[in-house]
Write a structure and sequence with these properties.
5-stranded mixed beta sheet, 7 strands, two-stranded antiparallel sheet, globular
């Protein structure tokens, strides 16, 4: 499966991925303080285990940062 994540094309050997499975592969160590949007629609964290990603999806992963 080929996905566009944060404007980068990435290849995955899996045919089907949930949002949570993708995050487990991409950022297994830091999943707190992030938001995820697919095709400009924010996916609530409560849906991450169920929302299936399609090969044509444009995925944006945003990490919260502290600033002052």
């Amino acid at each position: 499966m080929e996905l566009k994540i944060n404007n980068q094309i990435k290849q995955f050997a899996l045919d089907s991925l949930t949002v949570q499975a993708l995050l487990d592969l991409e950022i297994p160590e830091k999943q707190n303080g992030i938001a995820l949007a697919i095709n400009n629609t924010v996916i609530p964290k409560s849906d991450w285990n169920f929302h299936l990603i399609q090969e044509t999806d444009d995925i944006l992963i945003i990490s919260a940062t502290q600033g002052g």
